[in-house]
Design goal:
heterodimer, A: mainly alpha, MetI-like fold, 2 domains, 13 helices, 1% strand, B: mainly alpha, 16 helices, transmembrane (chain A), MetI-like_sf (chain A), transport (chain A), Sugar ABC transporter permease (chain A), cell membrane (chain A)
């Protein structure tokens, strides 16, 4: 290490260093074991499996790049799944950040009943995703759902939400905006950290509401916005449960043991890449292709992560 | 609290008599601002709260009414909540969810604390690399590693159909918890640890006697997040427990519950609220730790 002198250190010092190294290893050991067993090994195995034809019953056969060419060029559902995932990444993340920032700003301005409003805005974030999805499939149910009842009473033409291929993804976005609580809290904390004097100074300079936002608020919250965008992108690439459950329930199929359902109802409009991985690997038992597809997802996620590292976004320690 | 929503701002009595002069103008602007902000807040609150209200109202409707699109129950059928608990399997799902979430949380906390402490305090070669690796694991979609993991648990260890493939890995340091705890430990002043070392405390003693008590809010936040993660997890139980209904958790069972009762929206909404209830209850008892945790992951660093 940098602060140690060059050359062979004194024996006492060497003993101390060895003891320190052992101590560090000891403290880190749970993670080191976990990292190798539940990250390193499966990742390498996934790469290995992606070159095999394997249906989990017959012995695996090496097929070179066949799984990769199949997934990338021939598999009929790859296009829709990737398209849906990217659509969700762009639209959902953008709307979540804008809406979350809006709610965060609103919350900092509320004077009466602040506690009530904060709790009300935050609670949906805690609802288990499956429960929230079941609730939204009911609420947005085209025939008898309360939302369409209300829209009908107001004379507004109501869409079929989860049952219409054009509205299914927007319905998922609506569900995700309902659970904006985490972003609200993060933005709220960032907004409260902006120095008050800067607002006063800007006001003296004659800045209006927009000017104060543009020249005072925005520069000091940019790192948090970046953080929200990138974690949002990574999370949305993993988007699975809500899309799957909404599609299944809206399609009205009864799920029994062993029944294989094509995911993405209606018209594959809610099929995402993670769902396709599951379906390939655990329903069609095409292990090799599922592994190849999951690695496509991995490359996309890592690209976003490296953006995060470069942008820092307040994640990495600055003191090193 | 509730009075604010029941009396939306802008009631005529609150508008002051017209006056002139700069002071009166400023006052009027303040009041208009108050009205604008609170009107927006009420509108937003409706978006966040109404889904809960509709779900609850449907859960107490009779069978016919729940299918009719009615908004208000004609009669209140509380018995649905009893019926849900009598549904075969529902109590087992509770038991399994509590086992997964309880044991998972305990193991996560025990394994994440020493790792986070080492990453926050010890100086060693590769410290930065270790942090980058922790963050990378946080970013990894679970679908990328699930296939080889499933094959190991199912074919070598013969534990598919149980929740153990989900619980055991929690004893080996969850990346998100390590990251959050490390961020928290960095906020504890170095002097406390150094003075403990001067007093002759070993590292393990320092950790258990000094750091853990001081880091209680951070540990509480990690525990809560992990509890919620396990409680809400759908993908894990779907992979490992799906083939054995005796191992289903609430999150996994709820969806099949709806499919089995394809027309009974009232029963389904009662079950939905019962799945939400524990997390809401936990939140009300531990609000501060929770919000602190969310802020910590996003803002400090």
């Amino acid at each position: 290490m940098a602060h140690l002198p060059a050359g062979a250190p004194a024996p006492a010092l060497r003993r101390k260093r060895r003891r320190e190294r052992l101590r560090t290893l000891g403290f880190l050991s749970p993670w080191l074991i976990g990292f190798c067993a539940f990250f390193g090994y499966p990742l390498l195995a996934t790469v290995f499996f992606s070159f095999l034809h394997y249906n989990q019953i017959e012995p695996p056969v090496f097929v070179g790049l066949r799984n990769w060419t199949y997934v990338l060029t021939q598999m009929p559902l790859f296009g829709p799944a990737l398209g849906n995932t990217l659509w969700l990444v762009v639209v959902m993340v953008a709307l979540r950040v804008v809406f979350g920032l809006g709610i965060g700003m609103l919350v900092t301005k509320i004077k009466t009943g602040a506690g009530f409003f904060r709790t009300a805005f935050y609670l949906p974030y805690l609802a288990p995703p499956v429960a929230a999805t079941v609730a939204f499939v009911f609420l947005l149910n085209p025939g008898t759902g309360p939302v369409n009842e209300v829209l009908g009473a107001l004379g507004i033409p109501a869409p079929s939400w989860f049952n219409d291929p054009h509205w299914a993804k927007p319905s998922l976005v609506l569900l995700s905006l309902w659970g904006i609580g985490d972003l609200m809290v993060i933005f709220m904390a960032a907004l409260l950290d902006v120095p008050k004097e800067q607002y006063e100074a800007a006001e003296l300079d004659g800045a209006g509401a927009w000017g104060r936002f543009r020249y005072v608020t925005w520069p000091s919250i940019t790192p948090i916005v970046l953080f929200a965008v990138i974690t949002g992108v990574v999370q949305t690439m993993q988007y699975y449960t809500q899309a799957l459950v909404a599609g299944k329930l809206a399609s009205g199929v009864t799920i029994g043991p062993g029944s294989v359902i094509q995911p993405g109802y209606p018209d594959h409009s809610t099929l995402t890449v993670p769902q396709l991985v599951y379906s390939l690997g655990f329903q069609n038992f095409n292990t090799g292709a599922a592994c190849a597809l999951s690695l496509v997802l991995f490359v996309l996620a890592m690209a976003a992560t490296s953006l995060l590292m470069r942008g820092r976004a307040g994640l990495l320690p600055a003191e090193d | 609290m509730t009075t604010t929503t029941l009396n939306p701002p802008g009631a005529p009595s609150r508008v002051p008599a017209p006056a002139s002069g700069p002071a009166a103008r400023a006052r009027r602007r303040r009041i208009l601002h108050w009205i604008a902000v609170h009107t927006l807040a009420v509108a937003a609150a409706l978006f966040f709260v109404l889904p809960f209200v509709f779900v609850f109202l449907t859960s107490v409707m009779g069978d016919d009414q729940a299918m009719s699109g009615a908004l208000w129950p004609t009669a209140w059928h509380w018995s649905q909540y009893v019926t849900v608990f009598r549904t075969p399997g529902f109590l087992d799902w509770w038991k399994n969810s509590l086992l997964y979430a309880g044991l998972g949380t305990l193991l996560t906390v025990c394994s994440a604390v020493p790792v986070a402490y080492a990453l926050a305090r010890f100086r060693f070669r590769g410290r930065r690399t270790a942090m980058v690796l922790v963050i990378s694991t946080m970013m990894l979609p679970p679908q990328v590693i699930v296939i080889p993991m499933y094959l190991v648990w199912a074919q070598q260890l013969h534990l598919a159909g149980t929740l153990w493939p989900l619980i055991i890995p929690m004893a080996f340091g969850d990346a998100y918890s390590i990251f959050l705890l490390r961020q928290f430990l960095l906020t504890i002043p170095r002097e406390y640890i150094e003075s403990a070392a001067v007093d002759g405390c070993g590292e393990l003693r320092t950790l258990l006697r000094i750091i853990v008590p001081m880091a209680r809010p951070g540990i509480a936040a990690v525990a809560l997040f992990q509890f919620f993660f396990c409680w809400n997890d759908y993908f894990g139980p779907q992979i490992y427990a799906a083939q054995n209904p005796a191992s289903w958790t609430l999150s996994y069972g709820l969806e099949s519950f709806k499919s089995a009762h394809s027309v009974d929206w009232n029963l389904t909404m009662a079950a939905t609220l019962l799945v939400m209830a524990p997390v809401m209850l936990v939140f009300f008892f531990a609000q501060r730790a929770f919000v602190e945790g969310v802020t910590l992951t996003g803002v400090k660093g």
